[in-house]
Write a structure and sequence with these properties.
The chain is an alpha+beta fold and about 750 residues long. Helix content is about 20%, strand content about 35%. The longest helix is centred in the N-terminal third of the chain and has 23 residues.
Length: about 750
């Protein structure tokens, strides 16, 4: 018995060793044969269970992989990758709920894993996507697909060119060890009402190893294709995918040359040439990427190609991004590393968006299996590849038709409570039957947004807040594309508001909302936070204006020099400031608009800083506003009584500007002892000299209007400052900020005492 046991053990060990050798060489079909023999004798073998599960996953046999990963997670619970792979296999098998459980186990063991958190998120996304209207109809292409893999079709002449492992007409029936299937070759099928029997596309492009997929230039004279050269260089040598180019000479493809960035140490594959022939997209696992296969682009430089540029983290992930296809400024690709249904999903990302925020093309084009190799034959129809259920065999070729969805729009809004932005408040979007469709949290400025709303449909917004006074007092405004208030939402009580989903252009056409209870008069306060000397604090601190009870009534953020601005405060004589992160080592001073010191703000025992606006020795102007309120201000104080905004590159006094200037005229007529200093400003577009002249034109236009209403020109001083005094950033993190630019295109009016 002992000899028999030892004999069985030795045989099992030899089979495991042989299986591992095939596994390491990625010849998974052979490895599975020997792992199966090991497990027949030793069903609890951890290594064999884990490796055979991995091999089945690589060969896309998801049903077998599920069986072995279920066992691998039990036998080896400390190996966290098993939970990730098991979850992915369950997703492939349409078991999304069960997959989420495994992904969560993986995240519990790897709390900082991006891919783990993404997989958990994807399970929720799939649930949301399933209720959306489908953008595509999909059907299998007749007379093309076989029991083996057929994929990556593109239209050429009067048929399609595609890649297949059908192995027809090969001189030598080579097989690929990873899947034990014939090697890939390029085929062509002519279309005449239906596709005719496929044949080899080109004898010159057919080798005894993998060929394809391909891309053909717009003039049909150059072809780019992937190939793996057959080289026997020892069992540990890996033949890498490389890109080659050939040109059409008569009816034959000749002059086959390698892409200059091929490398024997990594793969370079799946080429796609842009319509203008100036960009070549491809996938590679070259060093320096995000992980797995990444997407790159090379730009034409004369007769050669420029150094490949990684498309960045917006597209590339720690998993594989493959099969790029570029059309009309949009890059389509397949990925395992973005939120999706399982396996490879097809995504679209725009070049004008700098390859950020890829969009999943969703079901039915995407499925729980691998979906890839998309090609549009016109703006609405095309082909793609998938190994989904119901096909002929491995990867099959499908056609798709894009159809117009129900017209949709979006809405943006602003939530306020007691005239302050209500940040961090949860808002639910409900349909007419009171079903919660989506939820958002307002940002630090009280803003929120809902997209993909059915046009002209009625919706309900409900605040998810447990504060009755907040629910009763909150106001919800609709905003235009610049984030400006244009409409007060209809309140039906208890934090619930109704609205109709209208085209966004409708809100942009509305006049800006002017609230009747908002005071016209405001004061701007400038300050600086520092430690020992002004300028020694690097900024980023949030500064609050608070009332006597500590309630926040205004927020600002210090810049790189510790400076902050409150542009629109009520004309109180005393202000209390607080820092969001209290630090008794920090001091605060108050400045004028030119950065000149006015005085220090006194730090109180409770961490607040007090600033008294009007000192006894200052000259005080008593002012009567347009509704006969008496206001006191300090002479030459930056006290804003009105503000006019402009369109880009314009000095036109539009209707909204005329209303503000009419208020100014009324105040000047009621207060004969005061004058007004007009300061006009621009955004940062255009040169310094241009902006300075434009700002002066704006100031002069405002003066001309006011004088036309009977005000003496001697009561008005006008000066243009160009782009030198912005009140908002013109760009944020290098991206243009239309909202900031709109705020900077302004004319402000400051009260001055006439001599």
């Amino acid at each position: 018995m002992l000899l028999l046991t030892l004999g069985i053990s030795n045989v099992s060990f030899a089979q495991l060793k042989k299986a591992n050798n095939y596994f390491e060489q990625e010849q998974f079909s052979y490895a599975i044969t020997y792992y199966s023999k090991v497990l027949k004798k030793d069903a609890e073998n951890k290594e064999a269970n884990q490796n055979i599960a991995f091999a089945y996953r690589k060969l896309k046999d998801y049903n077998s992989a599920e069986i072995y990963y279920a066992k691998a997670t039990t036998l080896n619970p400390e190996e966290s990758s098993n939970y990730l792979y098991y979850g992915q296999i369950l997703k492939n098998n349409n078991k999304v709920k069960e997959a989420k459980v495994q992904f969560q186990k993986f995240v519990d063991k790897n709390p900082n894993s991006f891919i783990g958190k993404l997989m958990v998120q994807s399970c929720g996304d799939i649930k949301d996507w399933e209720v959306e209207e489908k953008a595509f109809t999909v059907s299998s292409v007749a007379n093309i697909n076989t029991k083996n893999a057929d994929f990556c079709p593109l239209v050429f002449e009067d048929g399609i060119v595609f890649v297949s492992e059908r192995g027809l007409d090969l001189v030598n029936e080579n097989h690929f060890g990873m899947s034990d299937k014939p090697y890939l070759s390029i085929f062509y099928a002519k279309e005449d009402k239906e596709y005719k029997r496929a044949k080899h596309f080109s004898g010159q492009l057919t080798s005894l190893y993998h060929d394809g997929p391909i891309s053909i230039s717009s003039d049909k004279k150059t072809i780019y294709f992937s190939r793996v050269a057959k080289k026997e260089q020892g069992k540990n040598y890996t033949n890498r995918l490389k890109i080659f180019k050939a040109t059409l000479d008569g009816k034959k493809w000749k002059n086959i040359t390698p892409f200059e960035y091929n490398n024997s140490n990594y793969s370079v594959a799946h080429p796609w040439i842009s319509e203008d022939g100036k960009q070549l997209f491809f996938t590679s696992d070259m060093p320096g990427g995000q992980g797995g296969m990444d997407l790159y682009v090379s730009t034409k430089e004369g007769e050669s190609w420029g150094k490949p540029v990684n498309l960045g983290k917006g597209v590339n992930t720690s998993e594989n991004e493959v099969f790029p296809y570029f059309r009309k400024g949009t890059l389509y690709f397949s990925s395992e590393g973005h939120s999706g249904y399982g396996g490879l999903d097809v995504y679209a990302v725009k070049q004008e968006d700098k390859w950020q925020n890829p969009e999943n093309l969703k079901s039915p084009l995407n499925s729980s299996k691998d979906d890839f190799g998309i090609f549009y034959k016109d703006d609405e129809n095309g082909y793609f590849s998938s190994n989904r259920e119901g096909g002929m065999g491995s990867d099959d070729i499908y056609s798709f038709s894009w159809h117009t969805l129900t017209p949709q729009t979006e809405m943006s809004g602003l939530l306020e409570y007691e005239k302050l932005a209500a940040s961090g408040a949860a808002i639910n979007l409900l349909d007419e039957d009171d079903n919660v469709i989506r939820s958002v949290i307002t940002d630090e400025y009280g803003k929120f947004k809902f997209d993909k709303l059915d046009l002209d449909k009625n919706y309900l917004l409900a605040l998810d807040v447990n504060d009755d006074s907040f629910l009763e007092g909150a106001k919800l405004y609709m905003t235009n594309s610049n984030g400006e208030k244009v409409l007060l939402a209809n309140s039906i009580g208890k934090g619930r508001f109704t609205f109709q989903a209208l085209p966004y252009a409708y809100y942009d056409d509305l006049e800006l909302l002017v609230e009747e209870d908002e005071s016209l008069f405001t004061v701007s306060v400038f300050g600086q936070v520092y430690q020992k000397l002004p300028g020694d604090y690097s900024g980023g601190m949030e500064v609050w204006v608070v009332d006597d009870e500590g309630n926040i009534i205004g927020k600002s953020k210090s810049d790189k020099d510790g400076k902050f601005t409150f542009e629109k405060l009520s004309p109180d004589e005393e202000y209390l400031f607080m820092l969001a992160e209290d630090d008794d080592s920090l001091n605060m001073i108050i400045l004028d608009e030119n950065g000149k010191l006015i005085e220090a703000a006194k730090r109180l025992i409770d961490g607040k800083y007090r600033y008294i606006r009007l000192d006894a020795d200052q000259n005080v102007i008593t002012l009567i506003n347009e509704i006969d309120e008496v206001i006191k201000i300090a002479e030459n104080e930056n006290f804003i009584i009105s503000k006019v905004l402009y369109a880009y590159d314009s000095d036109e006094i539009n209707e909204a500007a005329a209303k503000e200037l009419d208020k100014l005229v009324l105040i000047l007529k009621k207060n004969e002892h005061i004058g007004v200093e007009l300061s006009s400003h621009t955004d940062s577009k255009g040169g310094d000299d241009f902006n300075m002249k434009l700002s002066q034109k704006r100031a002069d236009a405002a003066v001309k209007y006011v004088v036309s209403k009977g005000i003496l020109a001697s009561k008005i001083i006008a000066k243009g400052f160009g782009e030198t005094v912005p009140v908002a950033p013109n760009d944020i993190n290098g991206k243009d900020s239309p909202e900031g630019r709109a705020k900077n295109r302004r004319t402000e009016f400051k009260v001055i005492k006439l001599k």
